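ugh ok fine here u go
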Amino acid sequence: MFPRTLVLLAALALGCSPAPNAAPRRYCVSGPEALDLLERAHGTLLLAPPDGALETLSLPDAARRTALDANAVSAVVRVAGPDRRGRFAVVAHSERERVHTLQRIDEHGRAEVIFEGRGEFGDEAQLGQHVALDASGELLAFVARPRPVHVGGADARRMEGDLDLWRIEGREHWPTSLRALDDTLEWVPGAPRLVFTAFVEGDLARELLERHVAESDGFGRSSRDWKRVPVVHEFDFARWTVRALHVGEHPLVAPDGRSILLRDLDQNWRLLDLERDQSRAVRAPGAIWPGAVAFVDCDTALYWARPTEGVASNDAVGAARCALKLLDLRNGTFQTVVPSLDPRSRLSYASRP
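structure:
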């Protein structure tokens, strides 16, 4: 476990949901909040808590329903989707049977196993923790056979494996021969392109960083001296070509496919304009690991954050919870969507057509 993860969990344990009339705690982020961001979100959020049923949360009306009973699958490690028909993908792991599977769940809750691997989930896994399902529900991407690599200091342990693509119909498997980090994977809307993270040699990464980020900017500082540095890439599987885009990780693609939101190890965020090949800093008040979840429109993102002072929560004092917020990427204003959520929960969001 990374030191920053320990710090995060310790901070969460302080709690930020005071009892009635109690003073707000220092872990909270200060308001006031915006009041008009939630109306921008028209989509479905998948919520997979560590214990319990997998739910869908419809936005902006916040209607919840159970998508998958807690006993229907083994422990859910990752979720992706939903697609246009309401189907979604899950990575699930059974500790007792030492089996991990990639499944597509249809709109009626029926599971279809796409991939199965044996062994403990983690360093022995045949399947990574991240998966991308395209809007049609037919194309899947994941990192196969991820293994730990050390490239720098104490925070430099990463999982690296082989980037695999699958077409569910016909079970077509396209191994790419590309190495990728077990990090966020995103299909570019309406295009045969996939955005992923891979290591680049340190000298080349520093050249790329200098192209986008001023020397006085702190972005990427923690990894500048690494021998290999995480860099966001784009793979065009129609042309079978790949290009490095920007130093960073955890990439999210805007609904119009023209920009990518990414971050560095220290939760510094940048928004990359793909047409101009320029990026700018993004301020995300109260952001915590892992950061952004998804775009809800081209100017607004859903993200993990510390709770806001004074926002109502049902948690007891000391509960290790955090919040989901919407962020206006242009000015840094924010609004709470889910005021209290277990930080171990797995999330995925997709806008409705």
